Amino acid sequence: MEEMNTIMRGWHAINNFPFEDYQLNRSQLMILFFVAPKKEGATVNELAKFIRITPGAVTQLVDSLVEKKLVSREEDRGDRRVSIIKLSVSARKQFNRFRKEYFLNIGEAFSQLSTAEIAHFVALVGKIKIPADRQ
Question: Is CATH 1.20.120.160 the right assignment for the domain spanning 15-134?
Answer without folding.
Answer: no
